[in-house]
Design goal:
By secondary structure, this protein is an all-alpha fold. It contains 10 helices and 2 strands.
């Protein structure tokens, strides 16, 4: 027996296995080159890392739709021309028609006006989609008027979330997790599944229910003093917070240092300005879910419910869709002042 030949064959086999394993590991990495932008003092690991290829791929999905063009702002209000106009009734009829046409392009370009309206009677509330659209118009006006601390003058429109789809690509429902086989594994404590909502980690797979909906929990997990009495902050609680932070990072396509100073993630005085914007964004998201979206569960048909019977809700990805600012900061709302709630 030629033992030398066998050893060489075994070595080649081991080398092939090692190479395959290395390729498998590298498949999850981004290939160079990448760009970095210094966002803080040097030496503090405050560099923002960007992948030019990923930014180019996102550019198309974050482009503005074709402009609807200007219309006359004078004329009778829409409520005097059309029946059952419960929102935007004070808007001049020309602006109202332009907005309705734009909403069709933003939300239901394939289905057309019939997605929300009964053809024979446009004033009818028979279709649930019209009831939802009416509530969403109220919500959009609320955002642009009352949440400037987050959206500033840029504002939002239906297109910000929908991007040509009847249901936005990024919504969430309360997640009970995969069914367990029972026994000691019956309770997973809301984690230990590769969760897309948490960057495919085994962190909690539903960080939205405790933080972005009713009765929100405290996101902060860092104590303000050494061994404070009564402090029960634990690694378990930190897992939930970290899952939400990963979601926010991926939703905006940024590093943690976009909002936090790596010297002290806790310290507000050293944090970049976007952290304050994100703080308001969290509270705005809670407000939208509890004030507008939770209440629509009874209007939606069962097919639009989640596994626990709730309706779809919003998170950071719903608007941002991988961009640090939705549509990279372009303002579509400026063309539609009627969505600001000012009229």
């Amino acid at each position: 027996m030629n033992t030398g030949h066998g050893q060489r064959a075994a070595s080649r086999s081991h080398a092939c296995i090692a190479a395959a394993a290395a390729l498998l590991l590298l498949a999850g990495c981004e290939r160079p080159p990448v760009d970095t932008v210094q966002r803080g003092y040097r030496g503090l690991a405050m560099g923002e890392v960007y992948n030019p290829r990923l930014l180019a791929a996102k550019a198309a999905s974050n482009a503005l739709p074709a402009s609807a063009g200007p219309v006359q702002t004078a004329g009778p209000p829409a409520s005097s021309v059309y029946k059952n106009v419960q929102v935007l009734g004070d808007v001049p009829v020309a602006e109202f028609v332009r907005l309705m046409t734009s909403m069709t392009a933003w939300v239901s370009p394939d289905q057309g006006c019939n997605y929300c309206h009964v053809t024979a009677d446009l004033s009818s509330d028979e279709l649930y989609t019209k009831l939802v659209a009416r509530r969403m118009l109220q919500m959009t006006r609320h955002i642009n008027s009352d949440w400037k601390t987050h959206v500033a003058a840029t504002g939002v429109t239906c297109y910000t979330c929908h991007r040509g789809q009847p249901v936005p690509a990024n919504v969430w429902y309360r997640n009970p997790g995969e069914r367990s086989a029972g026994g000691v594994f019956e309770t997973k404590l809301g984690k230990n599944e590769p969760a897309p909502s948490a960057g495919l980690t085994s962190l909690p797979y539903d960080p939205f229910t405790p933080f972005l909906d009713q009765n929100p929990a405290d996101i902060r997990v860092v104590s303000t003093g050494a061994l404070p009495a009564g402090n029960r902050r634990s690694i378990k609680e930190t897992d939930w917070t970290y899952a939400l932070m990963i979601h926010m990072s991926e939703s905006l396509g940024v590093n943690c240092t976009y909002c936090h100073n790596s010297r002290s993630f806790y310290d507000w005085s050293a944090s970049p300005p976007p952290r304050a914007t994100a703080w308001y964004g969290i509270r705005m998201t809670r407000d939208l879910n509890t004030g507008y979206l939770d209440g629509l569960a009874g209007v939606l048909p069962p097919a639009r419910h989640g596994p626990l019977g709730d309706g779809p809700k919003v998170d950071c990805a719903t608007c941002h869709q991988g961009a640090f600012k939705p549509l990279y900061g372009a303002s579509l709302a400026a063309e539609f002042p009627e969505l600001s709630g000012a009229k």
